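Fold this sequence, please.
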Amino acid sequence: MTSSDPTSRPDVQIGKTSIGPAHPPMIIAEMSGNHDGRLDRALDIVRMAADAGAHAVKLQTYTADTITVDVDTPRFRLAADHKLWPGRRLYELYQEAHTPWEWHEPIFALAADLGLAAFSSAFDPTAIEFLEGLDVPAYKVASSEVTDLPLVRGMAATGKPLIISTGMATLGEIDAAVRAARSVGNDQLVVLGCTTSYPAPPEDSNLRSLPVLAGAVGAHVGLSDHTLGIGAAVAAVALGATVIEKHVTLSRSDGGVDSAFSLEPAELAALRTETETAWRALGRVSFGPSSAEAEGLRFRRSLHVVEDVRAGDAVTAQNVRSIRPTGGLVPDAFDTVAGRTFRTDAAKGTPLTWDLL
């Protein structure tokens, strides 16, 4: 049985990072095709991700031949009005965007040297076999592969944590993928809300679904975010996201297949900082002053003598007012004390207390 209470679920561990509500959100830097076909640029992206404070870097492990076939018919082309890749042949696009398999080892080695977890989305069984040879610490199920249950079971059967993106998926399809992973004994799951649109309009993120998703599948949830900027990701943390994945690049002006919706270095650093701030701000259910507010309590308003008075003078709105700091009677007591007389002299700034009247 799984619990709908997120705080009761065990943490998921990927590399050095613990995933769960008790920890800041894990930040995954998705390289995708932003290496632009250059290993040196791929390695620079890893260095940038480490400098910006990401916890992990993620690749995509496929070739054009393992993800599609070399056919040129309308079904194997993107729509003519696609925002980023209008009319592109799938085979050619995947040839351009794929990360050569021989690059994985040097990329993963550099990531390890820099303290980053490094793993990948596997797109077919040969990719799983290859990645197992590199001893990856986790796997990612891409949104378009969430309905490929044999592939999901293959990744889950490695015993490694599994991050499942859910773009386009119905709740029934998400449930089927989660059940497929658990059917081979793997319950180290994180399920990511996702909108498979590039870039994704913020209003399509539907972040209020995250707590519902967590309860429905009994797993930690997060966000694979394709919106521009970091606003959606920060908001997701407030709704329970424990993992945030964003595409990253060295510079959008350099171009590249995914650059238009990818974060630049300063934005990735801000993502790490602001999502952690959002997580810290969640705190706990609490009312009343916090320890940080102790000094502020002294500066609540109270009734004070605001001009010198002598014994026998009446309390008026001119000589007694509600001002900062505390120490006198509460402001609402003024109607009770108005018109009463002072029994002793009092200097300007004296808190008004019952023993003065």
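The domain at 292-356 is CATH 3.90.1210.10 (Type Iii Antifreeze Protein Isoform Hplc 12). The chain has twelve helices and twelve strands.
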